[in-house]
Amino acid sequence: MSNTEYSQDTDFLKEVSWDELYVLTQHWKSDLEFYRDDLRFLHHLIDKYFMWLTKTENLELVKELKKGLSDLKIQNVDLMAKVGKHTIQLGNLIENIKKTHAGIVKTEHEHLEEELAAFVKSFRKNRKEVFKITEYVIDNEKLSNIMET
């Protein structure tokens, strides 16, 4: 490792500790578990109430919703794996800083943070769309009688 790389790594260490990054990744893991459970709920909502649909346009809306939820589920699983691997790397750095190249871990952390932000943005947008379409479909298909039972 060149002196330049080492000084960049130590500059980063001065800004935030590896312990703090480790705790942050634990929060990411917890958030991703919450999103996983919420995605499961949204799938259940769609499956339970949209089986009564009769209008083609509504069926197409629901088909798109389900695809969006499936894509988010895949992203969630992928991010959970990446965060798990990153947590292990941070744990190794905490135990012995020479085990892993700190610059690589820093860059990986920054990329994960960007991926998580994009996932959360997509998740929120999709969730709003699920509730908006749910309301529309219930009114449009006159499903409110079914939901009261």
List keywords for this structure.
149 residues, mainly alpha, Four Helix Bundle (Hemerythrin (Met), subunit A), 5 helices, disordered N terminus
Q: Hey, roughly how much beta strand do the residues contain?
A: under 5%
User: Structural class of the secondary elements?
Assistant: mainly alpha
Q: How many domains make up the coordinates?
A: 1
CATH fold call: Four Helix Bundle (Hemerythrin (Met), subunit A)
Mean pLDDT: 81
Low-confidence stretches: 1-14
Describe the structure.
- The chain has helices at 3-15, 18-49, 56-95, 102-140, 144-148.
- The chain is mostly helical.
- It has one domain (3-148): Up-down Bundle (Four Helix Bundle (Hemerythrin (Met), subunit A)).
SSE order and pairing:
Elements: H1 3-15, H2 18-49, H3 56-95, H4 102-140, H5 144-148
Helix pairs in contact: 2-3, 2-4, 3-4
What's a quick, concise take on this entry?
By secondary structure, the protein is mostly helical. It has helices at 3-15, 18-49, 56-95, 102-140, 144-148.
